[in-house]
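[job 4417] fold queue: 2 targets
>>> target A
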Amino acid sequence: MNDTTPPEGTPAEAPAGTPASSTATADARDALGRLRTEVGKAVVGQDQIVTGLVIALLCRGHVLLEGVPGVAKTLLVRALAASLDVDTKRVQFTPDLMPGDVTGSLVYDARTAAFSFREGPLFTNLLLADEINRTPPKTQSALLEAMEERQVTVDGEGRALPDPFLVIATQNPVEYEGTYPLPEAQLDRFMVKLTVPLPTREAEADVLRRHASGFDPRDLAAAGVGPVASIGDLERAREEVATVEISDDVVGYIVDLCRATREAPSVSLGVSPRGATALMQTSRAWAWMRGRTYVSPDDVKALATWTLAHRMRIRAEAELEGVTAATVLTSVLATVAVPR
C-alpha cells in the first residue's frame, strides 16, 4: 500500500437528538460499515480492500482485483456477497469460454417449436469473473456492453441486467503463459483496481490458527458470515452519496490531476475524462463514508491511485527504467497545486 491509500477509520455515530434525515444517513453508513466486520469473520487483514469494494458498490462501479494466488481474492467476494445479501454468480474464465456462455443465448424449445432466451451468469447482482485475463479478447469484450450499459444484446434485442449489478474481476499478476492482457478500453470500464497484498506475519498466523480450529472457506455460514446490510441500505446510501457537495475548486483539482497524467513524459496514454468522472464519484463516496457532506482535496488524493493508475499506459522505455503508473501519480499529486 502507498500513502494515497484510504486510511482506516469507522463512521461516526449520530449524536442524540439529530434530525431524522441525519439519523437515516447514519443508519445507512453504519449498515455498510458493518460489512467490514462481517467480511473480517472470513478474511483476515484485508480491511482496506473491503473498503475499496464498498466504495465501488456505492458508485455503481466495477472492480479489478489483482494479487498473487492464495491471498483470498475469491473468498473476499464471496464473503462480501454473503454479508450484503445479494445474488452472486462466479465464472471461471478459460481459453475456451465463448461470449454466449457469459451473456446467455437463445435456446430452441422442441415443445413449443420456438426459441427462448436462457440467461447467462451476467444476470446477477454481483458477478465474480475469476481470472478474467485467461479468456480470449472476444469473450472479454462481451463484458463491455454489460459493464457500461448494464444490459446485454442477444439476437438484436437488449436485455436489462439486475440492479445493483457489479463485476468484480480477478487476475494473476505473476503468471502470463496462456493469458490475454485486458485492452485499455476494458480496463477503463473498471472504476477501481485494487491490489490485494500478502498478509502481515500476524495476519498470516491468524489465518493458520483459524484453519487449525476448523474454519472452512467453502462454508461461510458455519463461519458466522451472514447478511448485515440489504439492497435497500445500499440504495439509501447511494442517495446520500449523491448529495455530497463538491466545489468548483475541487472539480478543477481533479481535472488538473488527470490532465497532468496526459502530459507526463513517461506516459503514452493518460487518464480519460471517464477516469476523471470516476475519481469524482469515488471521492464523494469516501467523503460520505468518513461522515462528511463535502469533498476535500485529501479525499481526491486518497482515491487517486485506486481510481486512476490502471487507466494509464507507461512508455516502454520508461518501464525499463522502473517507472510505474503509481510513481507517476505520486509525482503528479506532489506537483499539481492543491486548492485551499
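>>> target B
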Amino acid sequence: MTGLRIDSARDLLVALAGRYSFGDVGALAPAVLKDGERVELVVTACEFGQRLLTLDAEDFAAEVSPHAVPADLRRRARDCNMPQTAKSQPRGALESMRPAYGLFLDVIEARWRRREFSAMIAAVHIASEYLPLLAFEPALGHGGDPVRWPEGLRAPGSRFGVIGDRVCAHTRAEQSAAERTLRVAVEPSTGWRAYLDRQHSKVAGALATCVARCRHPCPAMDWVPDREDLARRAEVALAFANSPLVRLRHAAPVGHGFGVPSAEEVLDAWERSRAHLARTAVGHEAAADDGFPLPGLPTLLSAVAAAPVGPGGLLADVSAHLVHLLG
C-alpha cells in the first residue's frame, strides 16, 4: 500500500478491496456507505470473493444476486466448484481441473502478497492433493469425475479398488477410496459429499501410483492411450506432494497460532523442492523464471497438465468489480 493516498473511509474500503480483503470490506461497508441497497450489493460481492479466497469450493455455485456479482464472474466460479451431488450440472472442477488450478494460483499469489504464509501453504497443499487429476485429465477427457470413470478401471484382472490385495501398490486408505469411487455415483448426496471431503484426493494419488509407481501392473491402466507420457507427468505430481514446500504444511501446526513459516523459509523450501522435482523427467520445468512469487510453479503445473495453466485472474476481477460497486 506504499504511496496510496487515503482521504476517506471509502478510500480505505477501495484499498482493502485491492488487497482482496473481502471480509473486512463486507464488515465495514455498512458503517461507511449510506445507500442501503448499495451496502447489500457490496456485502454480497464480498461474501462471494471471500469464498473464492478461502477456497470454499462447495459453495462457489451458491445462488448470488446478478446485481451484486456479474454473470461472467459467477460462471467462472462455478467452473471451480465441486458439484454437491452425482447429478449436479454443470460439473465444475470435475469437468476440468484447469480453472480450479488457475484459482489456486490466484490464491497463492494473493496470500504471498498479503504475507499470509500459513494460508498460502494450505493452498499449495490442496493443489498438491489433486495434482494427479490434472495430469490424468487429457487421458480421461474430464477432471476426475467418478460418474465418468473409464470402464477400464474395472477390467478383468484389475486390482483397482480391491481391498486387501497385497500385490497392489496402494495403501489400505487408497484401496478403500478406490473401491468407494467405483460405486459412489449411485450413492445419495450425503454419501457423495462425504466421499469428496475424505476420499477423492486419495483416489487422485492412487491413480498416479497405478500409472507411475506400480511394480506389478494390472489391467487397470490399459485404457490409457499414451501411458508413458502420463506416467512421467503423474510421477511429478507424486513428487510435488512429497516436496519440502508441501511438507511445510505437515512440519508445523499451521493454523494453531505458532510455527508459521516466514517468507525466507517458504522460498528456501521452494528452492529445495525445485531440486527435488528436477530428479523427475518433467520436474525440471519448475526451474523456469515465470515471474510468479514461487518462480516456476505455473510452468510446472502446465507441464503436468500438458496444457497451459496460469493464474486465472478471478480474484483480481472480483476486486475490480467490488471497487466499481464502492463507487
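[job 4417] complete. Note on B: The chain has two domains: 9-88+314-326, 98-305.
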